[in-house]
Amino acid sequence: MFWKYRRMPVAVMSLCMAGMLFAAATKTTVEKICEKPGNFNGFYVEVKGRADIYVAGPQDSTRYYVLKGEFGGVIKVKTTLQYPDQGEDYDITGVVGVDSYDQTPYIIEQSRAGGGGGGGGVVKRGFLEKHGKTILIGAIVILFGLVIYLLTLKKGGAEDGDFDDDWDVGGSTGKGGTWSGGSGGGGAAPPMPSPTADMKTVKIQASPKTMKFIPGTLTVLSGEDQGKSFRIAGYPTPDGSEVTIGRESVSGERAYAHIQLNDPKQTVSRKQACIIEKGGKIRIQNLSSVNLTKVDGRELQPNESAELKNGSVIQMGFMELKYTV
């Protein structure tokens, strides 16, 4: 029993040490993170950039804005702070993550400084900027001391037979509890209804109400859903807002920007095409090397793209879609 309770100060000190380690951010640039995302994955960083597009999702985990680096790079910043002023320069600190779908990096924002005074959640970090390295070195020393202290306690407890059988570290006895960071019961704002809820060959996940739609409308010209029209939101990337098309099912934050085609005969590939909107222009890129995408009767080779204009007809296997503005 004594062993279980005397470990509590160690746990508290470990949490303090982890907080100090987290405070020492690595200064870098948006461009370096985008160039080698894997080198920064999980790291606490500080970058400078200009706030651009802001997207307010249905819950805090889906709110983000685009940060433009000093040398042309672009990265998505997930945030729970108030929205930043568009066009203002900020110093951002947060943890880098990498999207498992396309390996693009993003930052989970912890604090923000700068701007014109309207960006909420601004935290001045003058002390950390001056003493971050000292804090990091001190935290490492504390960690080393805690390891020695913990090993000493464990050895003494084993010799004295002072362990509590109810202390189950690995859950092997079934007595140890597990911690769960639940949602807290708070309900998120409901998403928009799926635009293809009544369709059999086309499936699109419901998107957040605040998402920006790709300009124009797609109308089905063939099959069971002939004559039905729908719009879809794009997923912001450095190359523009993207909408993927294919037989595969997509989950996660890209699900709302994916058109899934139900094609039992497999005339459409799992990754068929991608619609890209940038600078007011809409293009479609063929991603398949087996089932080529056609635009107005012209076949697109793998990775070749063509501009979509008012009235353009897209053919992908059994599916024909008409794009209108």
Task: Give a structural overview.
The chain is elongated and about 70 Å long. Residues 1-5, 117-126 and 158-193 have low confidence and may be disordered. Helix content is 19%, strand content 30%. The strands form three sheets. Strands 7, 10, 11, 12, 13, 14 and 17 form a seven-stranded mixed beta sheet that branches. By secondary structure, it is an alpha+beta fold. The termini are far apart. It has helices at 2-6, 8-23, 30-35, 126-160, and strands at 26-27, 44-55, 64-68, 74-78, 89-98, 105-114, 202-203, 217-220, 229-230, 235-237, 240-246, 258-261, 273-278, 281-286, 294-295, 298-299, 305-307, 312-316, 319-324.
In a nutshell, what does this entry contain?
This protein has 325 residues and is of the alpha+beta class. Helix content is 19%, strand content 30%. The protein folds into 2 domains: 2-127, Nucleic acid-binding proteins (OB fold (Dihydrolipoamide Acetyltransferase, E2P), Beta Barrel); 202-324, Tumour Suppressor Smad4.
